[in-house]
């Protein structure tokens, strides 16, 4: 038996990504977003509402960082998704998080986040269903604490979380349950 819910944005998991930009006065702006992700080998797509302060910053600076937050920063990250920079000028300062200027793009790197993509805005598409921002990945930064013994990023060490749009909860990510392109490969032999 199933239950119909109609048209809802119910897909799980939803990412919890942090977009970092600079305001016109060079102060740091960060917001949490869930509607977006990788769309090509070197591209990300962000689906945003145009009234966000972050969108104004994206149009002005043509750059952003996209970070994966850790569970260690869930309180601060959630706050950055709740509070609006349009209404709260000291939003980022209230979190106690730290930022440093990217050497490659005109955007901040939040030092507490273990994985950050430095991106340039390639295109902003006004669609009937919202604004889509396409960004080119210029570089990926990872904290040494999330690297394995071979110097590769270990997703299990990111200690991150995802968003549940159906009940508005966050869930931890980290346990490896299989290997892509290997776990189901024996079914090819049937």
Report what the structure shows.
The protein has helices at residues 53-61, 74-82, 91-95; strands spanning 17-22, 28-33, 36-40, 43-48, 63-68, 99-101, 108-110, 115-127, 130-142, 161-164, 169-172. The protein is globular, with a radius of gyration of 18 Å. Helices cover 12% and strands 36% of the residues. The strands form 3 sheets. The protein has a 7-stranded antiparallel sheet with strand order 2-1-5-8-9-4-3. It has a two-stranded antiparallel sheet with strand order 6-7. With 190 residues, the protein is mostly beta strands. The longest helix has 9 residues, at 53-61. Strand 3 (36-40) and strand 4 form a beta hairpin. The chain contains 3 helices and 11 strands, in the order ββββαβααββββββ.
For this entry, give a set of tags.
single chain, 190 residues, mainly beta, seven-stranded antiparallel beta sheet, two-stranded antiparallel ribbon, 3 helices
Write the layout of secondary structure elements.
Layout: E1 17-22, E2 28-33, E3 36-40, E4 43-48, H1 53-61, E5 63-68, H2 74-82, H3 91-95, E6 99-101, E7 108-110, E8 115-127, E9 130-142, E10 161-164, E11 169-172
Summarize the structure.
The protein contains three helices and eleven strands. The protein is mostly beta strands.
Q: What characterizes the major β-sheet?
A: 7 strands, antiparallel
Beta content comes to: 35-45%
Oligomer: single chain
Low-confidence stretches: none
Helix segment count? 3
């Amino acid at each position: 038996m199933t239950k119909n819910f109609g048209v809802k944005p119910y897909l799980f998991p939803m990412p919890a990504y942090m977009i970092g930009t600079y305001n016109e006065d060079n102060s740091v702006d960060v917001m949490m977003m869930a509607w977006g992700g990788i769309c090509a080998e070197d591209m990300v797509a962000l689906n945003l509402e145009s009234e966000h302060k972050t969108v104004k910053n994206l149009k002005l600076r043509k750059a952003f960082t996209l970070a994966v937050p850790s569970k260690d920063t869930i309180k601060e990250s959630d706050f950055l998704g709740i509070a609006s920079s349009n209404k709260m000028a000291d939003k980022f300062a209230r979190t106690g998080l730290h930022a440093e200027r990217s050497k490659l793009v005109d955007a901040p790197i939040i030092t507490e986040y273990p994985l950050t993509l430095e991106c340039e805005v390639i295109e902003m598409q006004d669609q009937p269903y919202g604004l889509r921002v396409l960004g080119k990945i210029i570089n990926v930064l990872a904290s040494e604490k999330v690297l394995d013994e071979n110097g590769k990023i270990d997703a299990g060490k990111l200690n991150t979380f995802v968003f549940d749009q159906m009940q508005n909860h966050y869930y931890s990510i980290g346990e490896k349950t299989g290997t892509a392109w290997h776990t189901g490969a024996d079914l090819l032999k049937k």
